[in-house]
Amino acid sequence: MSSFPITVEAPAKVNLSLHVVGKRADGYHLLDSLVAFAGVGDTLAVQPARSLSLDVSGPTAALIPDEGENIVLKAARLLAEAAGVTQGAAIHLTKRLPVAAGIGGGSADAAAAITGLMRLWGVTLPPERLHALALSIGADVPVCLAGIPTRMSGIGDVLGSVPPLPAAWLILVNPMVPLHTPAVFKARTGPFSEADPLTESPVDAAALAAALLRRRNDLMPAAISLEPMVGEVLAALAASPSCLLARMSGSGATCFGLFAAEDEAKAAATRLQLAQPGWWVAPAALLGQSSGY
Questions:
Q1: Contact at 8 Å (CB) between 60 and 98?
Q2: Distance (Å, rounded) from C-alpha 18 to C-alpha 222?
Q3: Could you give the CA distance from residue 92 to residue 204 in angstroms, rounded to a whole number?
Q4: Cα(221)–Cα(184) distance, rounded to whole angstroms?
Q5: CB neighbourhood size of 135 (10 A)
Q6: Which is the catalytic residue, given 42, 109, 140, 218?
Q7: SS3 content of the chain, % helix, strand, coil (to 5)
Q8: How many CB atoms lie within 10 A of CB 31?
Q9: 13 included as an active-site residue
Q10: Is-cis flag, bond preceding 5, omega within 30?
């Protein structure tokens, strides 16, 4: 029997590369992205209750918009409906990730809610139904539900395996300005890119950086045009000693620096925190082929 509460981690999603390869007739863009996860994120806890409720605390809880239905409650309601569940749950979310930040914070929270509630309620869904449910919540929810390094294509609905990634460390940095995904895609100009998936396993962090340098994030120019502070974050990361690569994740505004060693990443993060106390700075391990941290 499970002990309560059931706790699930919701790690930050990092787009190590992101190519925009086309656009559907309905306006959705087609992507080819190498997605990984970082050892920093939100935490979700669930326990039995008569009805569904959500309580949020944590350093960035106040940043969650008041308007509209919270994505965690949306995920809970859709899962209950799909699985025929009539019982409730008390959900507590400890929010540490910034919002509208390009690191899938809300999507990771929704995925954690699905995982935790399936355990709490003792239900499962066939993989195809679970995938469709996740996609109906948001384009990044399926990959966050997978929680391992993944090739993400289509509109986020097509997930594929990737070669093992080496041990590495990241610094995630957000200047605490939101960037909303639809606006960034709308601002993107120029031709579409070719898909360029990772086909070989890099031997170390330097080889991973070299592989990523042959690829890019096609949304970076658009994001910088909307929020120039993204460019300032990238410059600060690139100037950090031992930084192998500086790049934006997703649609921004969070950027990441790639490092070979934990001590290098943490030292660089400390310097950035002292230089820019208003920025959100988090050193974290690049997670491997298993979820959680």
A1: yes
A2: 13
A3: 38
A4: 9
A5: 17
A6: 140
A7: 35, 30, 40
A8: 24
A9: yes
A10: yes
Give the active site residue among 13, 95, 109, 218: 13
- DSSP reduced 3-state for 232: helix
Give the whole-angstrom CA distance, residue 211 versus residue 219.
19
For residue 272, how many other CB atoms are within 10 A of its CB? 21
Which domains does the chain possess? 6-160 (3.30.230.10), 169-285 (3.30.70.890)
* SS3 label, residue 99: coil
Torsion sign (Cα): 149, 153, 159, 164: negative
Question: Each residue's pLDDT tens digit in the chain (293 positions)?
Answer: 456 899 999 999 999 999 999 999 998 999 999 999 999 999 999 999 999 999 999 999 988 877 667 999 999 999 999 999 999 999 999 999 998 898 988 999 999 999 999 999 999 999 999 999 999 999 999 999 999 999 999 999 999 999 999 999 999 999 999 898 999 999 999 999 999 999 999 999 999 999 999 999 999 999 999 999 999 999 999 999 999 999 999 999 999 999 999 999 999 999 999 999 999 999 999 998 654 44
Q: Are 68 and 124 in contact (CB under 8 A)?
A: no
* Token digits of residue 7: 């706790």
